[in-house]
Amino acid sequence: MTPPRILITDDTPAGLTLLASLLEPHGYEILTASNGRDALRLAARAKPDLMLLDVVMPGHDGFYVCRELKAETATRDIPVIFITSRRETEFVVQGFRLGAVDYIEKPFQAEEVLTRVATHLRLSRLTRDLQQRNAELEEEITRRRAAEQAKEKADERLAVLTAREAVRWGLGGFVGESPHLSRILEDITRLQPFGKTSVLITGESGTGKELVARAVHHHSPRAAGPFIPVNCVAIPPDLAESLFFGHTKGAFTGATADRKGWFELADGGTLFLDEIGDMPAALQAKLLRVLEDGEVTPLGSSGPRRVDARVISATNADLPAKIASGDFRQDLYFRLARFSITTPPLRDRPEDLPHLASHFLSLFASEMGLAAPVLTPEALNSLSHHPWPGNVRELKNVMERALILSGGVPIQRSHLQLFPAPALYSGTVSCISSATVPSPAVKAILLPNTASLPSSPASPAAIIADLPLNLEAAEHALILRALEQTHGNVAEAARLLDINRSRIYRKFPQVGKA
Predict the structure, then answer these.
(1) How far apart are CA 420 and CA 434, in angstroms?
(2) Peptide bond preceding 107: is omega within 30 degrees of 0, i.e. cis?
């Protein structure tokens, strides 16, 4: 521990020697100055813990030195004890007014000097400790106040976001009037009081399974909790256990910190497992254990942790068939499917199609700052006869593209760009709408070796049987379709396809020679 440092200032060498010899044996570090100017300079540099300051000195007297010390931030807290031979009350009071803490009369009494010095060093140390604690408390109060304010703002933002989420994913997000949709809404409403029940949502890709899952969450007692969506197909096998159940620091190479898994992140809310039918068998067993026990054990942890997460799962796979083949656990199925909801394909709810199409047009028009255009009868007829293999997701993309192509005018059949299954013709693969056939002009320009092309598209059975699985053939098909739609206008076809015209010329050099 550093010994207390005392600066003695006296213009008489005898006074300096006497005080130094009295204090030094008691473990104090002694500094001396013989005038006020040196005292100020030494005090600023050495920062003593206490000063013994003679009042009467030539040049700068003790009062001047004390006044200068208290005027500077670096030295104002140094306690000053005046040394004086004058006992007048006014003289003593002046010293206190300047900031001194005490005074010692000459001639010195050794015990008095030692007692006063020790007392004021202790008081100074206690004062510094108190000031430091007060500063720490002020910092803590400021930090807590800032944290409280941040929490209030976060709660406000969360409330706004929760309200927006409830509107976005609530029952108002379902558009249509078909019996299928009515049944789904009834199921969501029926589930509202049962916040712990696991739900399995089945249906084709693009039928809105996640929309149903979010609606179930936001119409349950868990609405204020988190909704954690997980795509089971995209989980790396070597990280699956860590991602689901978490890990502790050092559990494996690269685990530099503790990490919560999806189950803990969803605590108090909902964990949505999409494409559950593709979950690996090893992970299925671990998931079943969590659903049965309500506990997860992070990698590297010595004990389990309780979690309260509702599981909603979805799949477009035939789970009974997977159970029969041994690819999916039957006991897990019964755990997940305590309540089941089936989302129908768009082709089974044709009465909803006009409502959905108009809804998406209004949605995208609002985002683009346009007035929502109407659908012409011809366009609506094309939509009604399309098989919609991509379901609602496909319809949404078609309507966004149609709005861009139309620029806000009524949607025509030509704006829809529907993509049916490709047909294989002799010599060239093409993908053409059932409503259109390549014109003789386009055939002559693009396909000089296909004069025998049929004047009407192949039957659906023939199209499916001859469906090519070839990306280059598909690219040919798309370019052909764009040229057909634009009546051979390469620039316009390139714009529709969002490619450079040179790409069309490379695929169909006959265009450049026409």
Answers:
(1) 7
(2) yes
